[in-house]
Amino acid sequence: MRLKIICSLDHEEIPQDFRRKVLSLFKKSLSNTNHEFFQALFGTNKQKNYTWSTFFPQAVFKQECIIIPEKKFILNFSTGDAEIGLNFYNAFCRLKGKKVAFSTGNTLCIQTIQMVHASSIKQNLATFRILSPIIARNHNRETKKDWFYSINDLEMFQHVLKENLGYRLSAKYGEYVQNDIENLVFEPIQMKRTVVKHYDKFLESSIGLLKVNGKPYLLNEIRDNGLGSLCGSGFGMLEIV
What we know:
Keywords: Antiviral defense. Residues 121-240 form the CRISPR associated protein Cas6 C-terminal domain. One of its GO terms (biological process) is defense response to virus. The protein folds into 2 domains: 2-116, Alpha-Beta Plaits; 125-240, Alpha-Beta Plaits, CATH 3.30.70. The protein contains 6 helices and 14 strands. The chain has helices at 19-33, 35-42, 82-95, 154-173, 177-182, 216-225; strands at residues 2-9, 13-15, 51-55, 60-61, 65-67, 72-78, 99-103, 106-115, 125-130, 136-140, 145-149, 185-198, 201-213, 238-240. The strands form 4 sheets. The chain has a 5-stranded antiparallel β-sheet with strand order 3-6-1-8-7. It has a 4-stranded antiparallel β-sheet with strand order 12-13-9-14, covered by helices on one side. Strands 2-5-4 form a 3-stranded antiparallel β-sheet, with no helix packed on it. The radius of gyration is 18 Å and the shape is globular. The protein starts with a strand and ends with a strand. 34% of the residues are buried. The mean pLDDT is 95.
C-alpha cells in the first residue's frame, strides 16, 4: 500500500528535526484508533515494516527550521504489510479534516488521502528515486555505538545495506534470503552524501538515484518497505523511476 497525503499547516515554519514530530503524530493517531496494534508496534522492538517521506514545495532550509511558503506539504507512506497499511490508513482517515498539534505554535491538518498504485516489479533490474535519505547504519551491540556510511564510501555503504536487509528479512524468508541479498548489486546514479538532523543528532546519509540488480522479490521489498536503517522513522523510501 502506498499513500499520498496532503497536509496543511497554520504557519509556514517547521523545525529541521521534523521527523520526530511526524512520528509523534503517527503514535498518537494509532493509539487512538487501535491501541492494541499501537502497543504491538511501538511498545516493543518489533521491526517497522513501512517507510515514509515528505515533500516540501518551494521550501527554504535554514539552520534550525524549514520555511514552507505554501503552508502545505506531501506525506508519502508505503508498506508491504496489509495489516500495517490498514491500521495507518484508518488512523490517517480519522485525522482528516482535524487540526492537531504538530510543532511549537503550529498545527497540521490532513486534507486529502490518496492511494497510489504500485505495480509489482517483475524484472531483475530497477532504478529508484530516493524520496527520503538512505541511512546505512552499522550498530555495534557490544559498544552500543553507531557508525554511519554514505555513498562516499561505496564499499561499506553496500555492505551495511546488505547487513540491514539480512537482519530485516531473515525471519520472513528464512536463511536462503542471505545468498540473494549478497548477490544484490547497487549502482549509484547521481547520488550524493547529505547530513540530516534526527532527534538532535546529525546523521550521514545518501540521496539521488540508485539502480539495483537482484531478485524481483527483494526489489519489491525495498520499494515497499524502504532501504537501510530507520525506515519507520522517515528514511530510505524509494519509488520506481
